[in-house]
Write a structure and sequence with these properties.
Helices cover 6% and strands 51% of the residues. It has a single domain, classed as Beta Barrel (Porin). It has an 18-stranded antiparallel beta barrel. The chain has a two-stranded antiparallel ribbon with strand order 1-2. The longest helix is centred in the N-terminal third of the chain and has 25 residues. It contains two helices and 21 strands.
Length: 505
């Protein structure tokens, strides 16, 4: 893993040496591009108007600010988002009408943590770590293909002998192939992290590829929303989508995907999830869309005798104003069948196999809701998302009822760097529904913070960031050496980043 990272760093350094010459060669090229056709032409475009996924987002760069900014250093034109309302991805504000490009970046951070070992019960132990990360964002258009690719790799080195070093690998891939009356799309999000992906801040303020409300939506993501402590885990979400045009206003969507989460350093629950969806989309006018969707989901745990099958029907509404607003909401009934349902929580997020089982299959009737809104002005942007439904339990619970909300506010400081505030909350309740006096374990997790970037020239910048994480439960849990009913930590990071401007090819 370290060899791969060293090779990547060498490639990025070579790119930095040749970047000025490449920019000089490209100054005479035409940067304008025809804006997408009228939104009334339905969500599935013709070959002359390929579907536009969310543009790759450099570190510190808000996807919302990037789409809405009209500054002198950006392209004013924005191509409308034409993705299906009932598809795998969330609706977006659109993408900047730019040529194919790639953009490397390198970041170095020093972080002090008030509870580096993540001891529960109010115990604190200040520690320091140094993080080095490098990555590349790429957007390539050719013929009927539209591809985006983002990668981030790095290491975090701790000065404490009781805390192991952390390895971070993240990848986000999306490919859309547009035909006359259909669009075929592929999506993949991979992460190899030392902590839960929800609220992850292990490398200063460097975001993971595909993070944010403009990426793959629920239930096609892992749903890892419980703080799990130190320990490497591998997560991957793969999905395929087909959109078939029926008329100029209506289309059908068929999607399928598989997600997995595997823990390497503890006995938390490893699971795999299968998702299949069929949907209908109708474009009422240029801005408003409605849809109907049915989703089948199945969760299976490799180291625990538990499986969950859920059927969800949702009615959806969406509204898009290119470069300004993207809003969607879907709600409906959810019926879940639990094989060998658990009767109590695990009691420890590092001991996922301790829950007991009782009885046969049980039916749980509930409701599911997904909502997402993005709003952007010239240099400011706002995003908020909410999810409710039956989930996998993040490897801590063998299934849970999950409520999750997260939001952000960003202000663009330059073409490459931005500052902002982020925060989120999740509540996971174990599916203990068969016992006469069930003792469901519940986890409440909050995170919040902000970062401020000070650009130094066009490609360098200093960033100061702060984040807090707080988790509590109605029963004792252990995510570090000491157990308790709550864990709290503060993280302060100071770093420098080199983010090359987009290089056309």
């Amino acid at each position: 893993m370290r060899t791969v990272f060293n090779i990547l760093a060498a490639v990025l350094c070579i790119g930095a040496l040749f970047a000025p010459a490449m920019r000089a060669q490209q100054q005479g090229q035409d940067q304008g591009q025809q804006q997408g056709q009228d939104q009334t032409q339905q969500q599935t475009p013709s070959p002359q108007e390929p579907t536009q996924p969310t543009a790759p987002i450099p570190a510190y760069h808000s996807p919302l600010a990037g789409a809405a900014d009209n500054g002198e250093d950006t392209d004013n034109e924005v191509t409308p988002d034409t993705s299906a309302l009932t598809g795998v991805q969330n609706l977006s504000l659109g993408t900047s009408a730019t040529r194919s490009f790639w953009q490397p970046h390198i970041d170095v951070f020093t972080t002090i943590n008030s509870n580096q070992a993540e001891n529960a019960g109010g115990s604190t132990s200040w520690g320091e770590s140094t993080s080095v990360a490098g990555g590349v964002d790429l957007h390539h258009r050719s013929g009927n293909s539209d591809l985006t690719f983002s990668y981030l790799g790095g290491d975090s080195f701790s000065n404490s002998s009781s805390v192991s070093n952390g390895v971070v690998q993240g990848l986000n891939f999306a490919e859309r192939l547009s035909f006359r009356r259909s669009v075929l799309s592929f999506f993949d999000q991979l992460s190899y992290l030392p902590q839960s992906s929800f609220g992850f801040n292990g490398l200063g303020a460097v975001p993971l590829p595909g993070s944010g409300s403009t990426g793959v939506g629920s239930p096609f993501t892992l749903g890892q929303s419980i703080l799990t402590g130190q320990g490497q885990s591998l997560g991957n979400s793969l999905a395929t989508e087909v959109d078939a045009l029926l008329t100029a206003r209506s289309s059908l969507t068929f999607a399928g995907g598989y997600s997995l989460l595997h823990y390497f350093d503890n006995d938390s629950l490893n699971y795999g999830t299968v998702n299949v969806r069929a949907g209908y989309n109708y474009q009422m006018d240029r801005k408003n869309i409605i849809g109907l969707a049915y989703t089948f989901s199945e969760f299976n745990y490799s180291n625990f005798d538990q499986s969950i099958v859920s059927h969800t029907a949702q009615v959806s509404y969406g509204r898009r104003v290119t470069g300004r607003l993207a809003f969607q909401i879907g709600a409906g009934p959810q019926i879940s069948f639990l094989h060998m349902p658990i009767t109590n929580g695990t009691g420890s997020s590092s001991g996922g196999g301790t829950g007991s089982t009782s009885g046969g299959p049980t039916t749980l009737v509930s409701w599911a809701l997904n909502a997402n809104v993005q709003y952007a002005l010239r240099r400011n942007a706002f995003a908020l998302a909410y999810i409710h439904g039956v989930g996998e339990g993040s490897g801590v619970l063998a299934g849970s009822v999950t409520d999750q909300v997260n939001g952000s506010f960003t202000r663009k400081m330059s073409r490459t760097f931005s500052s902002g505030l982020t925060g989120g909350y999740s509540r996971n309740s174990g599916l203990a529904i068969t016992a006469s006096t069930p003792s469901n374990q519940t986890y409440d997790y909050w995170y919040g913070g902000g970062n401020f970037s000070y650009p130094i020239g066009r490609t360098l910048g200093l960033t100061l960031s702060y984040q807090l994480q707080y988790q509590t439960s109605n029963a004792s849990f252990c995510i570090g050496p000491k157990c308790g009913t709550s864990v709290f930590s503060n993280m302060i990071s100071l770093g420098v980043g080199w983010h090359q401007r987009p290089l056309s090819f």
